[in-house]
């Protein structure tokens, strides 16, 4: 089900402490939709709407914002989307934003007079993944996230940056509707018009709503199927005629009226019998049995308010008093109390005047009203009740199990006990009503622990023993701030020498089946005598069964390790000491090691990571590391690690020994593992985990490809040679990576061999072979075969193949020219993140547009086509121009500027053209910008300012920019 969240439209009065009416506006699962972030910008923490928190409650407040302001943001986005240059690819997106604005406006208009509508998000379940919801930091960070998101979106709108706008909304392209509708939030809007599982609608919101209304009146069943607001329960639907409501039965083609329109309102009652409905006339409510064959009114409208049935008993209000109603419309308890709560343990708490008591399931007083305050009965059959003497525990017969005398009493389901306080101190009362722990502690908290799972016993007598539940233990704190661990009877298990206790959770299934869980171990922590509030906790391990500390509190992180069936160890981690840091040390780098079960050193804290390159200070990453280490060491294999003192990989064994990376990989290869040879070759080539050695890399890559030496012919390769190694060997031979002299013929032969021996499905292999064939490298040129291999790679979205096919089709080089297909390949290259493809897409679209404009006949259609092509080209150029990290930003500025100057795809805009060219000219004089900078400066000098036909003609500026052009350095040869 995931972590759910809800967005509501709330109608709050001026008095914020009053309960506000709310309507669900949207729902999401496992994400905080971008749409919500925009709607909630400039918001603040608000009252929690917690009725959906059925699986737990972290106690977070809602995040709320003004609905009118949010509507204004939606309308700004709507207007911007309607001007989007890519809207032609999915025009319905504009209708979605229009519908969103109209729907939100309609909900705001429904707000009662005197209330202020606001949007309020229940993000409680998302806070479970955050870690500090109780401190309120989650809502504050969420608020900041919303503000930052809207600020970026607003900047994109203000500057006309459509690509940036799309990126902020998480839209790669409009046509990928199902990929972004839910993430953005439109798919989760709580209205029938929006549906992320279906393509966006072609009809406008107003037409959809009109059709919905027509369906109710003219084609009831069809209308009902669409309008779930009028669904009551099962086959029963309500329908409206002349302002009054009736009930209709509709199932499997059987459709008939059950109750004629005669009521001002009809709604489901929540009873187990779905035919029972609340019906209203004027200000009063009654009960209708909507039986398809014999409908009848069980209770004429006489109730001032009626709440849904719970366990087939309804709470109702008549005048100033509350009563209980049965499903047949008779009184279980006539209206006689001022307030009543839900039934729990067979009784319901009720108030008469200032006193509370308990009513049983027959509507009689089980305990007459006599308490100042009271709470529901706990599963143990006791309920907290308050008198002048304080809080006590009462039984269902009214007798005191624990006499009044406590300041508070609160039942905790996970404790299976009551927390009792007196004089600011906490204690414990068990489920039998015994004071197990006197209220003497500052803090008393349950230690959440894993269940003990019995391993298979060696003798038959004990092999059928049931699983043993670990006794509940409580961390308690004394006045001096020292903490200890006690059991449910108050016996001290761990002395008061610590400040924090933690279980070893979360444990994996394999760890739960290990002998470790039979030992009574707990994680302890102290601050080592430091008093600063931000002093870190230092953790250790305490063995409760042995009554001693196993691992002293010296480490920031201590995680359990298990391998085999009996072996136990401890994964420990601390920040890398300052003295060991170098200029290559990563931020937050750790010193990780492994301890034996008794706390002695197995592997020193000399590694930033062990088993997997992740931080073990992150709880779930630590679980991954523990699982990998358990698997490897249980199988007698070592795990990989990196050294902090030098940039190399090593392999750690369960006996405490450390093995060199190259030696380990060579040993694996000697045992027949070609994958080890391939990995070692890549590491030697890239200098990853070993010193770089191009010659050794070439040798090991040849072995991974299945031959003894790099010069061996592919035909001599063993059948187990790796196709990816053949490809990489080919690239190394072509580029002369080892200084032995380039061998393009050998490279080509290895690529042909790779395709024929398992590499046909590898896009990179196909692309590289296509390149060599098309360009005639290592043999005769074969463009036709090159294109075939390019196309095989392009089927798997290989950027190189997509780009080169686009160039070939645009130029008509060795293939028939096809501008549309070229644009298609560049478009896919752009979508794969290739910025060269983005630039060439824009250029190709401009050429397509020029061809369309030059056609004879059908001028209007061709002009429209050219406009669409220019608009998409402008979008591609803008994507580059707005990206400060793009090496092609200058060319994006140049192409977009000239497009705007000539008015292609939009009216000419000399000022915008000037802005873009000035931006491109102002980029740094680095080599990658030099040519685009020259193009921008040249056109500023000769076209924008130097051409007398230009709206910006300025001879003085033209001369100034001509001088700048002369001053630019010459491009390097080959640029």
Structure explained in plain terms:
By secondary structure, this protein is α+β, with helices and mostly antiparallel strands. Helix content is 35%, strand content 26%. The protein contains 26 helices and 44 strands. The strands form eleven sheets. A five-stranded antiparallel beta sheet has the order 2-1-5-4-3. A hairpin with a 5-residue loop joins strand 31 and strand 32. Helix 15 runs antiparallel to helix 16. The protein starts with a strand and ends in an 8-residue tail after the last helix. About 4% of the residues have low confidence.
Give a short summary of the structure.
The chain has 975 residues and is of the alpha+beta class. The protein is built from 26 helices and 44 strands.
Keywords:
single chain; alpha+beta; five-stranded antiparallel beta sheet; four-stranded antiparallel beta sheet; 26 helices; 44 strands
> Roughly what is the average pLDDT, rounded to an integer?
90
Q: Low-confidence parts lasting 5 or more residues at pLDDT below 50?
A: 131-135, 214-226, 451-467
* Structure class: alpha+beta
Number of helices: 26
How many β strands by DSSP?
A: 44
Q: How large, in whole angstroms, is the Cα Rg?
A: 37 Å
The CA-CA distance between the termini, in Å, is: 56 Å
- Major pleated sheet: 5 strands, antiparallel
SSE layout and pairing:
Blueprint: E1 4-12, E2 21-29, H1 34-39, E3 44-46, E4 62-66, H2 67-82, H3 92-109, E5 116-122, H4 124-127, H5 137-159, H6 162-169, H7 177-184, H8 205-218, H9 220-226, E6 231-233, E7 236-241, E8 244-251, E9 254-263, E10 265-268, E11 276-281, E12 284-289, E13 296-303, E14 305-306, E15 314-318, E16 321-325, E17 331-337, E18 339-344, E19 347-352, E20 355-360, E21 365-371, E22 373-374, E23 383-387, E24 390-394, E25 400-406, E26 408-412, E27 417-422, E28 425-430, E29 435-441, E30 443-446, E31 473-477, E32 483-487, E33 492-498, E34 500-502, H10 509-512, E35 521-526, E36 538-543, E37 548-555, E38 557-563, E39 567-575, E40 590-596, E41 601-607, H11 619-634, E42 639-642, E43 649-652, E44 658-660, H12 661-670, H13 674-686, H14 694-705, H15 723-735, H16 744-759, H17 763-775, H18 783-794, H19 799-811, H20 819-831, H21 835-854, H22 859-881, H23 889-902, H24 910-921, H25 927-944, H26 955-967
Antiparallel strand pairs: 1-2, 1-5, 3-4, 4-5, 6-7, 7-8, 8-9, 10-11, 11-12, 12-13, 14-15, 15-16, 16-17, 18-19, 19-20, 20-21, 22-23, 23-24, 24-25, 26-27, 27-28, 28-29, 30-31, 31-32, 32-33, 34-35, 35-36, 36-37, 38-39, 39-40, 40-41, 42-43, 43-44
Helix pairs in contact: 2-3, 5-6, 8-9, 12-13, 13-14, 14-15, 15-16, 16-17, 17-18, 18-19, 19-20, 19-21, 20-21, 21-22, 22-23, 23-24, 23-25, 24-25, 25-26
């Amino acid at each position: 089900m995931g972590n759910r969240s809800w967005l509501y439209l709330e109608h709050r009065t001026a008095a914020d402490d009053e309960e506000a009416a709310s309507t669900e506006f949207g729902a999401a699962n496992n994400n905080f939709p971008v749409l919500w972030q925009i709607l909630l910008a400039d918001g603040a923490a608000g009252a929690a709407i917690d009725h959906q928190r059925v699986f737990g409650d972290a106690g977070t407040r809602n995040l709320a914002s003004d609905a009118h302001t949010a509507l204004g943001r939606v309308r700004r986005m709507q207007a911007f989307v309607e001007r989007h240059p890519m809207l032609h690819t999915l025009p319905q997106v504009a209708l979605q934003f229009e519908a969103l604005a109209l729907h939100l406006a309609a909900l705001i208009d429904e707000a009662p007079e005197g209330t202020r509508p606001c949007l309020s998000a229940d993000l409680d379940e998302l806070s479970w993944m955050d870690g500090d919801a109780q401190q309120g930091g989650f809502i504050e960070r969420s608020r900041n996230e919303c503000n930052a998101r809207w600020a970026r979106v607003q900047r994109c709108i203000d500057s006309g940056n459509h690509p940036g706008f799309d990126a902020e909304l998480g839209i790669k392209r409009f046509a990928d509707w199902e990929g972004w509708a839910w993430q953005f939030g439109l798919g989760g809007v709580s209205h029938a018009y929006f549906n992320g599982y279906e393509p966006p609608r072609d009809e406008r919101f107003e037409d959809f709503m009109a059709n919905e209304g027509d369906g109710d009146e003219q084609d009831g069943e069809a209308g009902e199927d669409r309008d779930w607001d009028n669904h009551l329960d099962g086959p029963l639907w309500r329908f409206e005629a002349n302002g009054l409501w009736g009930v209709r039965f509709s199932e499997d083609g059987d459709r008939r009226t059950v109750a004629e329109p005669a009521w001002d309102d009809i709604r489901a009652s929540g009873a187990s019998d779905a035919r029972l409905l609340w019906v209203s006339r004027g200000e009063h409510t009654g009960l209708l049995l909507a039986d398809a064959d014999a409908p009848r009114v069980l209770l004429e409208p006489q109730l001032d308010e009626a709440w849904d049935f719970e366990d087939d008993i309804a709470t109702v209000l008549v005048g100033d008093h509350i009563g209980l109603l049965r499903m047949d419309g008779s009184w279980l308890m006539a209206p006689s109390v001022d307030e009543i709560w839900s039934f729990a343990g067979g009784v319901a708490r009720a108030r008469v005047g200032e006193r509370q008591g308990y009513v049983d399931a027959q509507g009689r007083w089980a305990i007459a009203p006599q308490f100042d305050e009271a709470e529901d009965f706990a599963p143990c059959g006791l309920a907290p009740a308050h008198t002048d003497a304080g809080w006590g525990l009462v039984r269902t017969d009214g007798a005191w199990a624990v006499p009044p005398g406590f300041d508070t009493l609160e039942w905790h389901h996970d404790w299976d006990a009551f927390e009792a306080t007196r004089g600011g101190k906490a204690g414990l009362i068990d489920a039998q009503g015994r004071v197990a722990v006197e209220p003497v502690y500052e803090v008393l908290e349950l230690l959440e622990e894993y269940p003990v799972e019995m391993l298979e016993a060696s003798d038959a007598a004990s092999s059928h023993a049931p699983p043993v539940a670990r006794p509940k233990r409580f961390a308690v704190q004394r006045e001096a701030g020292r903490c200890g661990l006690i059991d449910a009877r108050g016996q001290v298990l761990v002395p008061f020498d610590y400040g924090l206790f933690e279980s070893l959770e979360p444990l994996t299934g394999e760890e739960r089946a290990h002998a470790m869980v039979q030992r009574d171990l707990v994680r302890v922590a102290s601050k080592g005598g430091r008093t600063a509030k931000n002093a870190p906790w230092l953790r250790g391990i305490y063995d409760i069964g042995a009554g001693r500390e196993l691992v002293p509190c010296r480490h920031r992180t201590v995680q359990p390790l298990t391998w085999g069936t009996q072996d136990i160890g401890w994964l420990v981690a601390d920040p890398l000491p300052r003295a060991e840091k170098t200029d290559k040390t990563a931020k937050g780098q750790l010193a990780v090691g492994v301890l034996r079960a008794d706390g002695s050193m197995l592997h020193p804290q000399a590694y930033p990571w062990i088993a997997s390159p992740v931080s073990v200070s992150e709880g779930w990453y630590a679980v991954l590391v523990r699982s990998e280490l358990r698997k490897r060491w249980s199988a007698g294999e070592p795990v990989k690690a990196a050294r902090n003192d030098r940039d190399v990989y090593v392999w750690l064994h369960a006996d405490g020994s450390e093995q060199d990376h190259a030696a380990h990989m060579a040993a694996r290869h000697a045992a027949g593992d070609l994958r080890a040879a391939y990995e070692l070759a890549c590491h030697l080539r890239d200098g990853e985990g070993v010193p770089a050695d191009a010659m050794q890399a070439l040798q090991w890559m040849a072995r991974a490809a299945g031959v003894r030496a790099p010069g061996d012919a592919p035909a001599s390769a063993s059948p187990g040679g790796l196709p990816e190694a053949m490809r990489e060997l080919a690239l190394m031979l072509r580029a002369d990576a080892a200084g032995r002299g380039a061998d393009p013929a050998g490279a080509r032969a290895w690529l042909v061999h790779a395709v024929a021996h398992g590499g046909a499905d590898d896009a990179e292999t196909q692309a590289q072979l296509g390149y060599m064939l098309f360009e005639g490298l290592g043999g005769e040129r074969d463009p036709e075969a090159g294109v075939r291999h390019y196309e095989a790679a392009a089927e798997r979205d290989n950027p190189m193949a997509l780009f080169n096919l686009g160039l070939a089709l645009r130029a008509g080089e060795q293939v028939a020219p096809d501008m549309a297909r070229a644009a298609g390949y560049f478009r896919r290259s752009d979508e794969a993140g290739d910025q060269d493809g983005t630039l060439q897409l824009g250029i190709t679209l401009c050429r397509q547009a020029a061809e369309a404009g030059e056609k004879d006949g059908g001028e209007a259609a061709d002009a429209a086509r050219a406009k669409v092509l220019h608009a998409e080209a402008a979008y591609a150029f803008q994507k580059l121009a707005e990206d400060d990290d793009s090496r092609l930003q200058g060319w994006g500025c140049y192409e977009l500027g000239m497009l705007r100057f000539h008015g292609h795809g939009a009216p000419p805009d000399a000022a915008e053209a000037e802005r873009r060219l000035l931006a491109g000219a102002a980029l740094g004089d680095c080599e990658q910008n030099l040519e685009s900078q020259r193009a921008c400066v040249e056109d500023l000098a000769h076209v924008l300012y130097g051409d007398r036909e230009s709206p910006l003609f300025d001879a003085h500026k033209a001369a100034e920019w001509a001088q700048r052009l002369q001053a630019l350095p010459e491009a390097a040869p080959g640029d």
